[in-house]
Design brief:
The chain is of the alpha/beta class and about 375 residues long. It has helices at about 10-20, 75-90, 100-110, 115-125, 140-150, 160-170, 175-190, 200-230, 235-245, 250-270, 290-305, 310-325, 330-335, 340-360; strands at about 25-35, 45-55, 60-65, 90-95, 110-115. Strands 1-2-3-4-5 form a five-stranded mixed beta sheet, with helices on both faces. α3 links the parallel β4 (about 90-95) and β5 (about 110-115). α5 (about 140-150) packs across α8, α7 packs antiparallel against α8 and α9 (about 235-245) crosses α11. It starts with 7 loop residues before the first helix and ends in an 11-residue tail after the last helix.
Length: about 375
Amino acid sequence: MAKKQIEKGNLLEFRAKRLLFYMGYYAVHNILIKTSNDQFSDEVTDLDVLGIQYTNDFRNSTIWMDCKSGKIKTMERLTWINGVKNYLNIDEVLFIANSKKSALDYASQLNIQIFDQQVFDGIEKRFNINTNNWYGSWNPEIMLSINQQLKEITISGVGIKKISDFITSDYWIYDTFTGIKKTISALRELSRIPYEVLNVTEKQAFKWSVYQLTILLTNSILKVNREVFYLEKTKREEYIDQKLIASDIPINRRNEIFNSAVYLISEKLKNSNPELATTSLDVNVSPPQYAEALNNVVERLISFPKYADDIMRTMDLLFMEFDLLDKPLDKEIINGLLPNYEDNVIGIKIILHFIIGNSGIDKKLYKLLG
């Protein structure tokens, strides 16, 4: 990386993103956290870099890197970080900032790791990071502007900005199953865009959004796997179907609410017109058409957890370095950074076939399906 002049703060954040990748995390840059996903929501904060990691029984851990390259009030920042950490249930925080001993002691009490850029340099060396390598999603030259490029695509009837907001913010405050449904909806919306009419910059931004949504969907599927990991197959399917229908509201309770509403409306109509005939309504809510296919994905990944071990990190490098930039797969890079690559390819293909079959996204966008 040498062409563009990257601001010091942005460069530090992408170094943090690269470090988390080397530490075994799938890392996301610049997540905007809001109080809710409606139009009246307030912004809480933005997370510089969030790392997500799953074990082979689908338990996950999260790590947040907060990066400050200039002067700050360290003690106040630590108190604020601790509040956000607890609010979002983040497991660990790494805070990059200059600090005095008093700040180190206070950070230790809060279980926050604080270190300066000199220490950061040393940590990069421990992980044998080549500081000249900026692959995939940790390449600031590509990634700093790509979401804005996505927003600038104008296609009549397609909510591009809404999809952008979903990727960078809304997804992160939805529950697991709402996240799955919204991600599939976003992919279906993108499939309506005629790819061939886009210019080079727009095509790259479009592909970035597809790959981001693919990884977010995978994250939600891995969460589902954890929720149902210790259930037998029939119970797993029942659980997933119910959640797809009602998310956090059980089907029986949802039907009770609907029937109560129908009853109240019928009584009001009778009071206004006693001769009015009303009919009863039977509620028969079914899960979405892709429920069976999703159950199959969950079943296959639970049966072979090694397919999913490190899958998001593998997706990240493959999609953002090779698919996005139309590069041939480089086995030297892949083998050096992705120890579970061969198993992950099987898991990735399982998920991609689900996406292709249920979203309308063109399989040509993925080299693994070419």
